[in-house]
Amino acid sequence: MHKNLKCYLIEATILAGGKMAFLSAAEFRPENVLEIDLRSESRIGVGAMRADLGRLGKSYARGGPAMTLREPGGQIVACVGILSMWPGVAEAWCLASPLAGKWAAGLTRAVLWELHLLEECRCLHRIQAHVRRGRRDAVRWLEYMGFEFEGLCLEYGSDREHYYRYARSF
After folding, report:
1. SS (H, E, C) the chain
2. Which end of the chain is less enclosed by CB atoms within 10 A, N or C?
């Protein structure tokens, strides 16, 4: 997390099996990408970078604010953040584990809160995200959070797969 935005820990609550449970959020650390059990869809999207996850984690940590969300047992649900591109514009990223579906409500609340903080503290007027074509769950999630479809990026991925670009402007 950047020095001017280092002060918070978020708890998002959900109802799990009739009991209240907490999803905790803390500052992202580069080694978190090595701990996370990526969803099969995320493993595909990471593609050729899989061998360089340590470097990817360092790049994400340097690029902008990010957080790691854990379930009560300590397993990582997701790592999410932004990469600052230039003043006012950032690229959102998310690496999710298979637990993300179970914790969808808490994950979404935490990410929406984070987006709100970033928009305010970073004076962002645009956050964009790329999602691999065919990832309907990711598309629905982005649209729910206010992102709008902008277009298809041909051969955008390291594996030459096509990606959709979504953006949220303020």
Report:
1. CCHHHCCCCCEEEEEECCEEEEEEEEECCCCHHHHCCCCHHHHHHHHHHHHHHHHHHHHHHHHCCEEEEECCCCCEEEEEEEEEEECCEEEEEEEECHHHCCCHHHHHHHHHHHHHHHHHHCCCCEEEEEEECCCHHHHHHHHHCCCEEEEEECCCCCCCCCEEEEEEEC
2. C
